[in-house]
Amino acid sequence: MVLALFLLFLSSFPFACSASSPKYNALFCFGNSYSDTGNFNILVQGTVFDQLPYGITYFGHPNGRASDGRIPIDFIAAACSVLFHGRKNGAVATYFLTLISSITMALFILGEIGGNDYDYMLFSHKTIDYVKSYVPTVIDTINTAAESLLKQGVMYLMLPGLGPMGCTPIVLTIFASTNKSDYDSSGCLKIYNTIASYHTQLLSQAVTLLRAKYPQARIIFADYYGPVIAVLQTPELFG
């Protein structure tokens, strides 16, 4: 089902790395555990990501990814035929911007960003309304980061949204409810999904504005929310 999910994900936005799309020669990703191929383990020794069962279903051993196999960035790289060269130390960020102008055919991915912020607030017993009030601040931060890259000459930029938070095991466990009406037909907690859908809505609007402001660049909005919901609602279509 994981493979089917990401095949659907890759087909849900126009770049899709098809024969008619640009041939990317590199992929740079800034984000959280959805996109980290091992940098966190360099910064913090002895994390759970270096222990089984992480990595077991694809690599056969832990490799720093927050998954039992591959993460979204792996599927995107594979679809774009970009070779994996291993984890890179974050220290290169100090001179990274000086290299952007020479990487005209690189795809930059900014995100997923925001999920950890919302989770932290929820786990600190903040209300749903409080968390949602913070969403515009997160979107503004993403937008600022995107503009900093675009102003440096980045030509291909992808901004992923959030997956449905109310469907994640940690949210379902910590905020389990005895009220059946709190759950949707897929077993997800509806109220927590409203945070992710609101984030997705505002980010999509921000991407529209960025496209108008930087028409020379190809700016892609990657919907993480819709494909996951589709798999949960109609799993029989995805194996």
Describe the structure.
The chain is an alpha/beta fold and 239 residues long. The chain has a domain at 2-28 and 90-226. The chain has nine helices and four strands. A four-stranded parallel β-sheet has the order 1-2-3-4, with helices on one face. Helix 1 packs across helix 3, helix 5 (115-123) runs antiparallel to helix 6 (128-151) and helix 6 packs parallel to helix 8 (190-213). The longest helix is centred in the middle third of the chain and has 24 residues, at 128-151. It is globular and about 55 Å long. The model is unreliable at 1-7 (pLDDT under 50).
Produce a short descriptive summary.
It contains 9 helices and 4 strands, in the order αβαααβααβααβα. The chain is globular, with a radius of gyration of 18 Å. Helix content is 41%, strand content 8%.
